[in-house]
Design brief:
Distance between the termini: 110 Å
Radius of gyration: 37 Å
Largest sheet: 8 strands, mixed, barrel
Number of strands: 36
Shape: elongated
Strand order of the largest sheet: 27-28-30-31-32-33-34-35
Strand content: 25-35%
């Protein structure tokens, strides 16, 4: 057979006494591989190409070590898909990065050397198998897509299909295949590709001859790394889906997603299901709904595009992904699906030119990896106190200027080596410990925002985590700094900064434990309603009660509401508890009625979050209507701070409840948000004076005057008044003289379990 000077060319590159690494197609066929290897060695010997030692690459070998050992690598012929799968499993592509020896590809090995490999069907059943992968990423040694054995393939049929006319030509649109005769070859060196022998090019359905000599690959030598970098920097997968049968063909696939396709057998629905399982939990169900073929087609028809952003949690933080769908020109039955990581696009904060959250976490991880144990650095989490007030007082533009001033203050006083704006008014930075002297921190934490007409003082709270162990992950370090900052907000000391300590983590872990145990405890009836009686101020007779939640934990005993309510509120689960309290109160009153016992109206607290749960709010009256009780026996308390934040829709819910005879109470009046406009916009039935005012009776004359005025004001607009937190005779006497209607507090009763409250009513 004419080899067109192959061995003469090879001799110019062959190392002396070469160490040869033989890469088989199927490492399990040991006997067959041994025979093929010996044939190759005999051919090299007859051509006077010296081989001092030869090894066969197996599954058990380290690809990095074997590649480093070799001078020449021979990629054998055989079943190309099997060989490529084997090479991917052992990471041969990565091992070859920077390799400066000689690589020879024969048959399948030559096909798999391409950047983007085309596998012609070889075995019976492959041509008609919708899951057979014809295109895949290869070893990236060249961008030449080779189809060997030209003379044989021209006459070859698979599954009743002519290999050239029925398979290769339809696949050639957008591609360039080189169909070459046996003995022909390509030589790639220093970015130049030369062809020796006979062959043809099949491109966009057209066949034309290829001439020997230098050729220009489908992508030039310069373009190859550009395209590679584009794909490597975010393209997780590119595949097409047939609209009717929903079978898929893969064009690019990151190795981390390999299992999704092999396990799903290229069925679109199964691929989407497996992909959804990688997303954050709250996005999984809606993702599956939105990526249905019918949903995609509908949106493409309406908007001309389909794009969704989803999120995936990794050990080092959350990353953002785009899934995009496009029509394929010329192929009306197919959609192109692109799944791309867009986190790097989001690395920088558009407003401050600092790193955004993802960018900061990535760079911080790198910084930690280069840190030595004797280096002294800390991570600081900074939060602007009261930015919302700045925006409301002076407008969002001035609020942005406060953000800029905060950034500049952090840089001026703490000299960070790395800084990012995580979100809103939250910054994170890493700085040397020598910069964290108390004078610097205090100067930085107290700021004055000035313009020509404005002077506004604000504070920056800082949580500090000393990096004593660089091996601790950046997410854990940032979480620790956040806990330290949160401890400032939760205590009443005039603190501006705090260092993390393990007790903060213990409290956090306890809260997370309670959150994870929440649903189990609810199912096991560990939550209990307590009732605090409210009495007539003149007679002391019990006229109503406020319902309060308690948690008798199986392991921890009685858990304080202060420990579990905040974490449940932060996770948006308060409606579950409030629904439980509503049902408990209704059942209690109904049981009292049925037994002919005394019952009094019971008040349930509604949180601000409840009003944004339309299903919960709309079902309140339905829950009452189905029971044999008067609606007036159920009352709802709304804190004045929550009421101040409510939107029109939420206020409509309160109005509907009043129309059904349900009384609405304004709780904590006087706690800091008091506004006459609240009393003007809604007809509250009862106003509850905050405990802070009651405690100042006999101490502060102004507070006493405000109490008297508030009671008169309430009466003048047709509302009653309840005083909360009454604990002694002096407070009671003052309130009675001020004509207060109702009293709630330890002076009369503490909160009682349901059974004790029922006995008390007798």
């Amino acid at each position: 057979m004419d080899n067109y000077g192959f061995f003469d060319e090879l001799k110019t590159e062959w190392p002396k006494d070469a160490k040869l690494l033989y890469v088989p197609c199927n490492p399990e066929k040991v006997k067959e591989n041994g025979k093929k290897r010996q044939i190759i060695l005999d051919i090299f010997a007859s051509a006077n190409l010296s081989v001092s030692e030869c090894k066969t690459l197996t599954e058990e070998d380290s690809a990095n070590d074997m590649v480093a050992w070799s001078d020449v690598i021979f990629l054998a012929s055989g079943h190309a898909p099997s060989q490529l799968a084997f090479m991917k499993r052992i990471g041969l592509k990565e091992a070859l990065s920077g390799y400066d020896g000689v690589i020879i590809g024969q048959g399948a090995g030559a096909m798999n050397a391409a950047f983007y490999v085309y596998h012609t069907p070889e075995l019976e059943g492959e041509a008609v198998d919708p899951n057979y992968v014809r295109f895949s990423d290869g070893l990236d040694l060249t961008n030449i897509q080779i189809i060997p054995h030209r003379d044989y393939i021209r006459e070859r049929s698979v599954d009743g299909l002519n290999l050239i006319d029925d398979i290769v030509i339809p696949d050639s649109f957008g591609c360039k295949f080189y169909l070459i005769s046996d003995g022909s070859y390509f030589k790639v060196k220093n970015g130049e590709t030369s062809f020796f022998g006979k062959g043809e090019v099949i491109e966009d359905g057209v066949i034309y001859p290829v001439k020997p000599g230098k050729i220009i690959p489908f992508m030039s030598y310069v373009e190859q790394p550009v395209i590679r970098s584009l794909i490597s920097e975010g393209y997780d997968m590119i595949f097409a889906v047939e609209k009717n049968e929903e079978r898929c063909e893969v064009y690019h696939l990151d190795m981390s997603f390999w299992g999704i396709f092999t396990e799903s057998r290229f069925d679109y629905k199964e691929i989407c299901k497996r992909l959804s399982q990688t997303l954050v939990k709250e996005e999984q169900e809606i993702f599956l709904e939105q990526v249905r073929i019918s949903s995609i087609q509908e949106e493409l028809a309406k908007r001309g595009e389909f794009v969704r952003t989803v999120h995936v949690d990794y050990e080092d933080g959350r990353r953002a992904k785009n899934i995009r769908a496009k029509e394929v020109p010329g192929y009306p039955d197919w959609l192109m699906i692109i799944y791309i990581d867009i986190t790097s696009v989001l690395d920088y904060d558009w407003m401050t030119d600092e790193y955004a959250r993802t960018g900061f976490l990535d760079r911080a991880k790198l910084f930690l990896s280069e840190l030595h144990r004797d280096d002294h650095y800390s991570l600081v989490f900074a939060n602007v106190k009261g930015l919302k007030a700045v925006n409301e007082l002076f407008g969002n533009q001035k609020g942005d200027l406060v953000i800029f001033q905060t950034r500049d203050a952090l840089r001026k006083y703490l000299h960070p080596v790395l800084m990012g704006r995580l979100e809103g008014d939250n910054f994170a930075l890493i700085t040397a410990d020598e910069n964290l002297v108390e004078k610097n921190i205090k100067s930085m934490c107290r700021q004055v925002f000035r313009t020509e007409s404005i002077k506004y003082s604000y504070e920056i709270y800082c949580g500090i985590f000393r990096i004593t162990n660089p091996r601790v992950g950046i997410s854990a370090i940032l979480d620790g700094a956040k806990l330290a900052e949160k401890s400032i907000r939760n205590n009443k000391r005039n603190q501006l900064f705090a260092y993390y300590d393990d007790s903060m983590k213990e409290n956090y872990v306890k809260q997370r434990f309670l959150l994870s145990d929440f649903e189990r405890a609810l199912a096991d009836n560990e939550f209990m309603p307590y009732y605090q009686p409210i009495v007539n101020a003149k007679t002391g007779e019990i006229v109503s009660a406020e319902m309060l939640i308690r948690w008798q934990h199986r392991d921890l005993g009685m858990v304080s509401p202060g420990d579990f309510i905040p974490i449940i509120e932060s996770e948006g689960k308060t409606a579950i508890l409030d629904k439980f309290m509503l049902e408990s109160g209704i059942d209690f009153i109904e049981r009292c009625y049925a037994a002919g016992k005394m019952a009094v109206p019971c008040a349930i607290n509604l949180s601000r979050v409840d009003f944004y749960d339309s299903l919960f709010m709309e079902n309140i009256f339905e829950s009452i209507k189905g029971k044999k009780i008067e609606p007036a026996m159920v009352r709802f308390e709304v804190t004045e701070s929550a009421y101040a934040d409510l939107e029109t829709k939420a206020l409509e819910y309160l109005g509907k409840l009043k129309k059904h005879g349900i009384q609405i109470l304004l709780d904590d009046y006087g706690s800091g948000m008091s506004s006459l406009s609240m009393l003007e916009t809604f007809d509250f039935d009862i106003i509850k004076l905050d405990i802070g005012f009651i405690r100042k009776i006999g101490i502060n004359k102004k507070s006493e005057s405000i109490i008297i005025s508030t009671i008169k004001l309430a009466h003048s607009i047709g509302a009653k008044v309840t005083a909360e937190g009454v604990e002694n005779e002096k407070q009671l006497k003052f309130l009675q003289d001020a004509d207060c209607d109702y009293i709630q507090g330890f002076y009369f009763y503490k909160p009682l379990p349901e059974a004790e409250f029922e006995k008390l009513l007798k």
